Amino acid sequence: MRLRPCRLPLLLLAACITLPAAALDTARLDPATRANDDLFRAANGAWLAATAIPAERSEVYGADLPASVNARVRAIVDGLRAHPQAPGSIERKLVDFHDSMRDLAAIDRAGLAPLRAQLDAIDAIRTVDDLARWQGQAQGILKTPLWLWGGFADFKDPTRNRVLVMQGGLGLPERDYYLGQDARLLAARAAYLRYLETLAQLAGEPQPQAAARRVLALETRLAQAHVPAAEAMNPAHVRSLDAHQLAQRAPGLAWDAFLQASAIPEGHAVNVVQPAAAGAIAALQRELPLDDWKLYFHLRLLDVSAPLLPAPFRAAHFEFRGKALGGLSVPVPQDERALDALTEALGDGLGALYMARHFPPGHKARVEAMTAQLQRAASEAVVHIPWLGTQARKEAQAKIAGMRAKVGYPATWRDYGMLAIEPGDALGNRNRARRHEWLRLVALSGTPIERGAWAMSPLEANAFYDPMLNEINLPAAILQAPFFDAAADEASNYGGIGALIAHEISHAFDATGSQFDSRGVQRDWWTAADHAAFDAFGKGLAARFDALEALPGTRVNGRLTLSENMADLMGLQLAWRAYQHALGGRPAPVIGGRSGAQRFFLAYAQQWAVKRRDERTLQLLTSDPHAPPGLRANFPAMQLDAFHDAFGTHAGDAMYLPPAARLRVW
Q1: 274, HSE (Cβ side, Cα atoms, 13 Å)
Q2: Is it true that the peptide bond before 482 is cis, omega within 30 degrees of 0?
Q3: What is the pLDDT of residues 424-456, one digit of tens each?
Q4: Strands 404-408 and 161-167
Q5: Which residues, at least 6 apart from 67, have a Cβ–Cβ distance to it below 8 Å?
Q6: Residue 320 CA to chain centroid, in angstroms?
Q7: Residue 25: which pLDDT band, with cuts at 50, 70 and 90?
Q8: Do residues 657 and 642 make contact, with C-beta atoms less than 8 angstroms apart?
């Protein structure tokens, strides 16, 4: 992503420009901790010691990119509010949506009225067809036990859009919360039962305790049907099925009624991501009493709506989701919730205004140049990936050659002309926006893929690799310090955003990447020997993480986190190689008394500056495919000879690994 700041030789550099500032936040560094013993704490120790997790947060980041985006969005909306805006314009909708989310008095006055039509529709369910139809109409608003996700390329024909069918419907974070016997999981389960009882009581259920027990029992059956998290997203299990085939293979759910009410065109197939779970969950739709399903959907709808319902619902929601699950002491301020909701609902409307102010074309060009540099490095290095044989390396080269990157923001912005935003109708606005977005996505089913379309909001601080389109998505929101700094030197930027881009490139060559070829077609392009070599490497990597304790008595799940741990490992090694190429044989300047190599690794570690409450860590250990932040900083660095050379590690240092024990990938 980084362009060189000056093309003159290093000898003349001081004569043409001032040396760029380092992206390193030196105030975070801990001079009392050696990188030789703990890179993560050396890079972030002062910040960790001085930072308390706010009462309204379950975690806090050294660089809170969403907060930075929100501050800019707030300024944009405040500026719009200061001037009259035309009725129906995107500017008016932005202001009205945001203000409705902040108006707690109006939310309290509305009571359950914004949900009344949906609650009445649940009460009116009389048959399994009605039950399926209601779930279809809830898509976009509620994740039903089998829920739909649109806007993705078909696994077998990546030139066409196809809707995904996913397992879901749980009120607790993940299946282990229902089935595990760990004391923390048992406590979360008990808190959830209390929360369900409170929701039932507030909604006027005559027997709230019994209602809560019935809903928890139903959700436990759903959890038993779920594929475990470590296996849930394996593309090899995906099956493309139409309503008739689904009715045969997963009987119980009235698929015709469900898909029709979801607005999926008749005859269109969907990609079922967890077929085993789909069959078991569909069977439960007929097996379990209809009244239990109706009660379950009442409480699920109240739960997802609670932040925008009257104060007693908000308090109950915080007591469970904020305090019991997240370890918070006070709720997140309503203004912050409003900004998050606005970005989710009208992200493209905001995006056009945001980019004009905060992401100039020069930033986009530099990131695109750095991506090209990383692809060149990957093309050269791919022949060294230990698990790929000669034939697979040819296809790997083709994947790299055909890989694209979407940087910053889309060329065209979505239209919100048909979305109704009403002043003072917070929950109605949110639900209409979510359904509007779902209808936009489902309308793409079966249509040709538009390569310029974005699946992620440019205001989302994240990134991902899409194997069907063989492309990397890098929204503007993540292209900020500590990942990317337009004023920073190459070492810091390659250690930051360079490692992240390389992480995404690496996903093209892991267990998921093996299932999609250079055209994005789901096809296994590895030989049996390639798979065996990869499995052996992955088994060893997973075992190393299985041995690491993240909480007292709770270890990292090496299998669940394998793909991301592999990409962290590959990404840092590839970023280092690309950084060396970017130097062009010139020695890196020393800045702040630190060599280029030292800045590279410290910048990498500063990406992972996070403090979390134990409750949040527990959630992530059961469901998140990423390892805890400190491990993401330290483990990949320990595998690079360059890290040991940069800091002069020796036997006895906590970060030292003998050369023979270092995992080398590229």
Answers
A1: 21
A2: yes
A3: 999 999 999 999 999 999 999 999 999 999 988
A4: unpaired
A5: none
A6: 23
A7: confident
A8: no
- Measuring CA to CA, how many Å separate 411 from each of 366, 406, 444, 452? 17, 10, 19, 7
Tokens of 245: 């085939």
Q: What is the DSSP letter of 520?
A: S
Element (H, E) at 235: none
**How far is Cα of residue 580 from the mean position of the Cα atoms in its chain?**
30
Residues 192 and 300 sit within 8 Å (Cβ to Cβ) = no
Alpha-carbon gap, residue 198 to 201, rounded angstroms: 5
Determine which helix (DSSP H) or strand (DSSP E) holds 610, and give its type and residue range.
strand 610-612
Q: Are 508 and 472 in contact (CB under 8 A)?
A: no
Q: How do strand 610-612 and strand 59-61 relate by DSSP bridges?
A: antiparallel
Which DSSP string do the residues of 16-41 spell out, in sequence order? HSPPPBPS--GGG--TTS-TTT-HHH
pLDDT of 8 > 80? The answer is no
Name the pLDDT band for 9 (thresholds 50, 70, 90).
very low
User: What type of residue sits at position 332?
Assistant: V
Going by C-beta distance under 8 Å and a sequence separation of 6 or more, which residues neighbour residue 46?
Answer: 27, 28, 29, 30
d(CA 323, CA 329): 6
pLDDT at 320 over 80: yes
What pLDDT digit, counting tens, does each position of 196-218 carry?
999 999 999 999 999 999 999 99
Residue 459 parent element (H or E): none
Distance CA(469)–CA(518), nearest Å, equals 9
Separation of alpha carbons 94 and 506, rounded Å: 38
Residues 250 and 185: beta-carbon distance below 8 Å: no
Q: Are 631 and 624 in contact (CB under 8 A)?
A: no
- Residue 608's closest CA among 563, 573, 642, 568? 568
Work out whether the CA dihedral 21, 23, 25, 30 comes out positive or negative: negative
pLDDT at 4 over 50: no
| Residue 23: pLDDT band with limits 50, 70, 90 | low
- pLDDT bin (cut points 50, 70, 90) of residue 24 is confident
> What is residue 163's predicted lDDT score, i.e. its pLDDT?
98
Q: CB under 8 Å to 659, separation ≥6 — which residues? A: 641
Mean pLDDT score, 288-304: 98
CB 655 within 8 A of CB 39: yes
Mean per-residue pLDDT, 44-65: 93
Q: What is the mean pLDDT of the segment spanning 251-273?
A: 97
Q: Hey, what domains does the chain have and what are their CATH numbers? A: 23-52+371-387+489-661 (3.40.390.10), 129-329 (1.10.1380.10)
Residue 193 has a pLDDT of 98
Nearest-CA neighbor of 217 among 276, 296, 138? 296
Q: Which amino acid is at 430?
A: R
Average model confidence (pLDDT) for the chain? 93
Tokens of 371: 């991506």
* Tens-place pLDDT, residues 388-403: 999 999 999 999 999 9
Token pair of 296 as six digits: 């379950």
Rounded distance between C-alpha atoms, residue 73 and residue 79, angstroms: 10
Distance CA 525, CA 512 (A): 11
Closest CA to 255 of 265, 268, 246, 264: 246
- Name 516's bridge partners: 522
Amino acid (one-letter) located at 183:
A
- Burial pattern 459-490, b for ≥16 Cβ within 10 A else e, equals bbbebebbbbbbbbbbbbbbbbbbbbbbebbb
